[in-house]
Amino acid sequence: MQLKERIENLLEEARKIRLQTTEEAEQYRIRLLGRKGEMNELFEEFKNVEPAAKKEIGQALNQLKNAIQAAILQAKEQCSRPEGRQPADMLDLSRPADERTGHRHPLSQIREEIFRIFGKIGFDISDGPEIEDDWHVFTALNFSADHPARDMQDTFFVERSGSPKDVLLRTHTSSVQIRSMLSQPLPIRTLCPGRVYRNEVVSARAHCFFHQVEGLYVDKNVSFADLHDTLLYFAREMFGSDTRIRLRPSYFPFTEPSAEMDIACTICAGNGCSLCKHTGWVEILGCGMVDPAVLENCGIDPGQYSGFAFGMGVERIANLLYRVNDLRLFSENDRRFLAQF
Ligand code: PHE
To answer: What phi, psi does 303 have (nearest 5°)?
Structure first.
């Protein structure tokens, strides 16, 4: 074969070749560029080329050498990349995120734990709108128009021409309890989770929104003892099997009797510390027997049915479990904070 033809064949090979592994690249390098390789042979023969053809053949030889080196370099780069992928494949936007780059928000983790605990005793989950009307948030829950309890919860109203102060951001998810009683068949055993809004100045201890999980059980013969035992079960699942609770009389327009539940302080076990303000107890939720007037408002006969309800703040539970002393941290999405949970 003519020298020129051999160079052309090898050049074509060098341009087409796709070396897949480091060994393949090394073998190719030895065959072409090694001491006894084809390039040295060709340079040897080049010495005998007549002067008139030297320029042309010399250039072709250099071109071939460059092409061979390029093929080897490309193979080396490709093999050093993970899984030998081509540059174009390396940014795969559809690839699922690395699990370590994100995880459940602490409030989601607690909300899911609450779902799990009540799920075991038959509670399902109900949903309702954050933008509500006065009837579902107040009136149906037994707040009369001039009832001072309306001021207990400073409300954000949505301005609309025509009916001012009728559309508002819900101040509690008790509105979802009303919706459940209106739409679900009895008996009802449901949780009402969600974000609620109150017109508070934002500080470490208060925020203009927070998260609640409320619960409702309506059936025949539901008693206060059922409420007590359900909440004791919850507290022990959530805070540990030796947790003690106490119920203090309280007031809510929609429950009668009403109570607030405390648990023995999780920090000092009841001995007194700054978290429990040296009382040994911390408040975690409000509860009570559903007021007969509320059942009636939802078309349920209070002569036949009774029920209990309770409502807790998810941030409050998180504070007790993790001792986060600034509420704002929960909504700032600072990864240094979130990565701790
Ligand atoms: N809705 C009350 C609140 O937001 C909590 C509550 C729910 C109290 C159910 C009693 C019964 O504070």
So the answer is: -70, -25
Domain boundaries, the chain: 3-90, 106-338
Work out which ligand 1 atom sits closest to the CA atom of 258. 10
pLDDT in tens, 137-185: 999 999 988 876 676 668 888 887 766 678 899 999 999 999 999 999 9
Residue 143 Cβ < 6 Å to ligand 1: no
Mean pLDDT of 117-140: 96
Average pLDDT estimate for 121-135? 96
Alpha carbons 90 and 96: distance in angstroms, whole number: 14
Checking if the pLDDT of 128 tops 90, the result is yes
pLDDT of 83 higher than 80? no
Q: Whose CA is nearest to atom 5 of ligand 1?
A: 311
- What are the tokens at 8? 């052309």
CA distance 262 to 243: 10
- Options 3.30.930.10, 3.40.30.10, 1.25.40.80, 3.40.50.720; CATH for 106-338 is 3.30.930.10
According to DSSP, residue 173 is labeled T
The answer to whether 304 touches 298, Cβ cutoff 8 Å, is no
Q: Left (φ > 0), alpha (ψ -120 to 50) or beta: where does 116 sit?
A: alpha
112 pLDDT above the threshold of 90: yes
The answer for residues whose C-beta is within 8 angstroms of residue 25's C-beta and 6 or more apart is 19, 72, 75, 76, 79
Is ligand 1 within 6 A of the CB of residue 174? yes
Higher pLDDT, 166 or 295: 295
Q: Is pLDDT of 85 > 60?
A: no
266: CA distance to ligand 1 center in Å? 22
Given the CA of residue 196, which atom of ligand 1 is nearest to it? 4
